[in-house]
Description:
This protein is mostly helical. About 65% of the residues lie in helices and about 5% in strands. It has two domains: about 1-105, no CATH class; about 125-360, no CATH class.
Amino acid sequence: MVMTALIICTQLLSLITIWADFYTDHIYTFIRDPISRIIEPLNIALGEILMYIGATVMVMSVVILILLIFFRKRKGYVAFSSGFIKSLIFFILIVLLIYSTQWLTPYRSSVLGNKEVTEYKYTTEQIRILYIYIVDNINEECGNVLRDENGNIIYDSKEETEQKVSVAMNGISNEYKRLNGYYPTIKPALCSDVLDWMKIGGYTYPYTMEMTYNKYVNRFYFPTLYAHESSHHMGYYKEHEANFLSFVSCSKSDDPLLRYSAYYYMLRYIKDAYYKASLASEKKDDYLRDIKEHHLLAQVITDVNNANKEAEELYLSDEHLLEDYADEVSEISEVGWDTQSQILNEYDYENVVFLLLQYYDGKLY
Length: 365
């Protein structure tokens, strides 16, 4: 009863934005950091293992309940079943409590931690200016990154990249205060096959304060991905928040590769928004002209293709259990993405464009 009451209270309190902001800013941090420091040394993602154990236990519970129909007259089995179900209910209540405090409450806090978000409707021209700005910066950073004698990008190690991203994110913490602090490493997901089929780059486990990534993502994307998952870890659980903070932090980094990655992986959101705005304002011809005049350099395309090719080679070098079930996994992934989009609603990935338009208001236009 006490556990149920706590869950109900946390669920109801999370609906109060002022409380959600206070909790995320002042309580969540003190829970997050100690757990992260304890679990980080593990070579595997404990959160992922616990997820598999939980799924197994749920299957076992169904089997036990079915067998109870046949063994209901055996007192020993009835006692075992009763104990198992009681333990399962207690386990579920603990999971719900952690879910309410470590994900739902931060998720329901105000956008960007109580920073004012305007209701202003941005024009097609302003989106156009932002699009050209992003393209120009991609092309500029393409010429700034370190390359070998063959013209290929020289990438840092995973650990070096994580360090540079954490410095970049702490660098904007004066404006986005939750980003100040310690950033744990991101661990390769055991279920990278599943993540790859679902086109997911990474996943954050609020239960264990761990971040995981699809080990088949390319190295060009990795800085942006780590910054995105780190934003979740620091309490910004809305997807458009994480996309925005990932971009801002990496684009302001001293490292040209972080800037290059940030600008490139933000382009598609801006380009899509510009296209939709041009259709709505009947300026498609202007859009087509700008796309032709303000385009990516050939070297940018080469860099991206090389990174994708390297990632594909890594994927092909491994054995994959899902290859025989490609159609089934694809169908499941589509259902998963549809469900997620309904849950996230207005806080999905693409709404990062609005936050960017607001961020550059007064800077570009």
